[in-house]
Amino acid sequence: MKGIIGKKIGMTQTFSEKGEVQPVTLVQAGPCVITQIKTQSNDGYNAIQIGYETVKKANKPTSGHLQRTGNYKYLREIRVEELDELQVGQLLNVQMFSVGEIIRVTANSKGRGFAGGMKRHGFHGGPKTHGQSDRWRAPGSVGAGSTPGRVFKGKRMAGHYGNETITTRGLEVVSVDLENNIISIKGAVPGARDTLVMVAGEGNIPVYVEEVIEDIVEETAEEVEPTNEAQPVVEEVVEETAEEVEPTNEAEEVEEVAEETAEEVEPT
Hints:
Layout: E1 2-15, E2 21-29, E3 32-38, H1 40-43, E4 47-54, H2 60-65, E5 72-79, E6 91-92, E7 102-108, E8 111-115, H3 117-121, E9 159-162, E10 165-177, E11 182-186, E12 196-201, H4 213-223, H5 230-244, H6 250-264
Antiparallel strand pairs: 1-2, 1-12, 2-11, 3-4, 3-6, 4-5, 7-10, 7-12, 8-9, 10-11
């Protein structure tokens, strides 16, 4: 299985080649980084852990776990079959998905608070006539009398509705924007705007990015490495300034003039 973490941007519409309007959901997916690799020999199964959205600070256990890749706000695990070409620090983006591919999206649904049976479970309510003036939206009977004398567990009743992990399957990829890391998905995706989503599809993760975070850090260090080009220039300027302000023998000349004047006015 392949997958990537992202955030839901919102919904819009696009036009197909036939001119048909199709509703799509835009998801800002990735880029993600592989933070850990789990193997069959060490952990009992093959999987990778990916991180999304970097953060500056993290607690000590998290910082120690992510010391090779840096700190990330969100971590998710993906089961994979092959681990030969995967390594810690590898970058993942939306390039792993193609137009027309069937995927599934997992996210938390919108929270709707405390809801009644009709809204939460789709109950039809009571009759509108025959004296039932105040039972239109009531749940009805919840069980028998003295036998069993209780309400069975799992009985559908009013309660907290929404804010549950939901997986929508059979969604189609409409377009992939590699430059902005945006994937367009046909249809609706669970959750509100800015909800964290997990986009997954069938197949193995392709190795299309050979870069590793360590290599990127080294390249950045080379770019900003201080040079000694300015040092000779500074030394030359300092030498020129020293020559300009080099002390002269003007004081000695002043002393000679004072001695001559003293000799002229010496009393006789």
